[in-house]
Amino acid sequence: MNSNFIQAGKIFFHLCIMASIASVFKRKYYILFSLVIFLWLFGSWVLSEGKAESFRAMTPFHNEYADFFFRYFTHLGDGIFILALAALLAIRKKYFLSFGIVGGYLLSGLFAQIGKRVLNAPRPKAFFEAMGETVYEVPGMDVHLAGSFPSGHTASAFALAVFLICALPNKTLNWLILLGACLVGYSRIYLSQHFPVDVFAGAVIGSLSGWVTYLFLEWRVSKKK
Question: Are 203 and 149 in contact (CB under 8 A)?
Fold first, then answer.
């Protein structure tokens, strides 16, 4: 009897989760579907081109204006910025958004750090120097050598973006948020901190983290009603 009750509870729980996923995806169909397609196309291209060639293809030029822009824009994927944003929202009593931003950041960061520590893959500078080549370095900026895969900044940016896309109703703002996450990802390649495959993995980790965090918080809120 107890086992049947537990089984029924599990089935009900999974149905609730599926209904929640369907509800969110229906409301955000175009932008989430666009994100999935983009990641699929980008990932397919990166894997077909390979680590070195995809990096070369995505860094064909550098100039002082792009150097300045990406040097500072990349910090939107920093933990300091994300936690500061969460704190500001908490002060304004936007607790759902604040908790979701922190939750997505922690979840994406956990998986990103596991990948970095387990694989400890060389970053572009170390990788190409071992081949007798050099990479562009933005003047005055430190370029790291190890812990390339995946990109933590990209994971954090996409976790933030996907959570906000799910939580906020403004469609125009949602597209701008997604564009911002993509620019953070590209900045990691432009600044020679990561390979495209690192950015792709970070975007997938971050997107899933933001999605799962939103579903969990929405489920908790609905459970309390």
Answer: no
CA dist 47 and 38 (Å) reads 14
Inter-residue contact 174 to 165 (CB < 8 Å): yes
- In this structure, which long-range contacts are made by residues 213-218, counting pairs with CB atoms below 8 Å and at least 24 apart in sequence? 213/100, 213/103, 213/104, 213/107, 213/159, 213/163, 214/24, 214/100, 214/104, 214/162, 214/163, 214/166, 214/167, 215/17, 215/20, 215/21, 215/24, 216/103, 217/96, 217/99, 217/100, 217/103, 218/20, 218/24
Amino acid letter for position 208:
L
In degrees and rounded to multiples of 5, residue 45 shows phi and psi of: -65, -45
* pLDDT tens-place string over residues 19-72: 545 555 566 668 888 898 899 999 999 999 999 999 999 999 999 999 999 999
- List pLDDT tens digits, range 88-99: 999 999 999 999
Q: What are 137's two structure tokens? A: 């370095």
Instruction: Indicate the DSSP class of residue 192.
Output: T
**Considering the entire predicted model, what is its pTM?**
0.88
* Amino acid symbol at 184: V
Domain residue limits, the chain: 29-224
What topology does CATH give the domain 29-224?
Vanadium-containing Chloroperoxidase; domain 1 (1.20.144)
